[in-house]
C-alpha cells in the first residue's frame, strides 16, 4: 500500500485489489484515499479520493445480469405492458 492502514475496506475486481478508506497510522488520521494494487506491475497506485474520510468500511463486488444494468423489460415489467400491442 502507499500508506499503512487499518480498518479499510478491501475488494478484488478484475484481478486488482482495492483498498478503500481506513485509518492511516503513518499520518494518524482517517483516510479518504482509494488505492489499487496492480499485480501485473507489482505496484500500488492511488485511484481517487472519497468525498469524506471513512473507516470500518465494508465492501463487496456484485455481478448484475446485463438486463438489470440496461433498459430491458425484465428489469422494468411496467414497460413491457406499456409497450405491448393489443
Automatic annotation (TrEMBL):
Q: Is Cell membrane given among the entry's keywords?
A: no
Q: Record's PANTHER family?
A: KELCH-LIKE PROTEIN 9 (PTHR45632:SF27), LD33804P (PTHR45632)
- Gene3D superfamilies noted in UniProt: Kelch-type beta propeller
* Domain of life (superkingdom): Eukaryota
Q: What is this protein called?
A: Kelch-like protein 36
Cited InterPro entries: Kelch-typ_b-propeller, Kelch_1
* Keywords of this entry: Kelch repeat
Amino acid at each position: 500500500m502507499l500508506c499503512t492502514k487499518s480498518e479499510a475496506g478491501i475488494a478484488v475486481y478484475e484481478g486488482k485489489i482495492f483498498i478503500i478508506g481506513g485509518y492511516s497510522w503513518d499520518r494518524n488520521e482517517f483516510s479518504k484515499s482509494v488505492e489499487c494494487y496492480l499485480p501485473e506491475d507489482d505496484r500500488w497506485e492511488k485511484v481517487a479520493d472519497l468525498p469524506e474520510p471513512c473507516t470500518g468500511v465494508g465492501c463487496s463486488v456484485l455481478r448484475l445480469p446485463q438486463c438489470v444494468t440496461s433498459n430491458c423489460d425484465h428489469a422494468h415489467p411496467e414497460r413491457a405492458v406499456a409497450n405491448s400491442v393489443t
